[in-house]
Amino acid sequence: MKWSDQERYLKPIHLNNQRVVVTIDRVTMEDTHPRPGKTERAPVLYFKGKEKGFICSTYNARTLARLFGDDCDACLGKQIALKVVEVLVGRETKRPIRIFAAEPATPTEALKEATATARVN
User: Fold this and answer.
1) How many domains does the chain have?
2) Which residues form the domain of 21?
3) This prediction's pTM
4) How many C-beta atoms surround the C-beta of residue 37 within 10 A?
């Protein structure tokens, strides 16, 4: 047994530094706890054959809208890739999970995914 197995939602440690392709089964709105004492309603993705939900950040929601359109139901049954990337937030490096197209459509998309690093101020 691992401590990370007790998590309700998907975390970077669960991906083992791998790019993982999943199929979106459903999207729900759930109360999440991004910080101690704070509750937010957020979309949570669930994948076929997987138990853990994935809290969908604004960044990832925009990626889904770009890939499949603005209607949340349009992404049901679609495949996406999940990958941990490094993001510089101020002076601290974070490692969030980002959503990408399951198969990069163009060499530009493949390059974008391979070098996905952002700076957030």
Assistant:
1) 1
2) 8-120
3) 0.81
4) 5
